Amino acid sequence: MIHPESFGTLENFIQSELQHPLVFRQIAYTYKDLVSPCEHMLKTDLDKTGKFSQSDFEQLEKYLVLRHLKKNEILLDQGQICQSVYFISSGSAYQFRYEDIHEKVTDLHLQKEWCLNYSSLISQTPSQNIIKANSETTAFELRLTAIHELIAQSPVFLQLGKILEGATFRTQYLDNSMSPLERYNDLIKKQPLVLQMFPLKLIASYLNMTPETLSRARSCF
After folding, report:
1. pTM here?
2. At a CB cut-off of 8 Å and minimum separation 6, what does 138 contact?
3. How far apart are CA 166 and CA 143, in angstroms?
């Protein structure tokens, strides 16, 4: 069963409402209605990662933490060691590091994507990047220790390693091997929803160009 971390104060509230069965049923239904679609979305994504039975998924579920994040809430701060991977079920997040006083965006994360700082997680060294919620966001957290425990229980969970491998193949636009127009075209082909979810300033930083250059590239479409 998923542990809804952000509902930490819900238990006390429910206790106070137990004397009103109808209200309690409404609360329980609303909570189930919120979590079940997220679970389905996660299971669908995991089915693309490997072959997991229903019992495998139920076992994995025991280790998941449902996180509800406010806009600009930090998932991973600079200097922290990345200990978790996050599956974004709604909303969006981005990774960046500070260059002088400016945010240099290194990755954009959309709904139905896994979010992590690969180098920090693998090497267990302090992260140079910050992961921040770009909007109101719901995400499943799976800690690295949980992945190790799952693998110890069954080799089927070795397939979770593909989540980490996927992070290494995400396109980076930190060099100039492509023109601004090619970078923009490549992004909207691979992540078309980026334009709906992120402000142009962040997209321009991710594409390693100025907002003015991004505007010129967009005018070509």
Report:
1. 0.78
2. 38, 66, 67, 68, 69, 88, 89, 90, 91
3. 17
CA dist list (Å): 191 to 103, 157, 183: 21, 28, 12
Output the six-digit token pair for 5.
Answer: 């971390």
Please provide the CATH number assigned to the domain covering 3-170. Answer: 2.60.120.10
Which residues, including other chains, have CB under 8 Å from residue 214's CB and lie 6 or more apart? 180, 184, 200, 203, 204, 207
| Pairwise CA distance, residues 154 & 156, whole Å | 5
pLDDT at residue number 46: 83
In this prediction, residue 168 carries a pLDDT of: 64
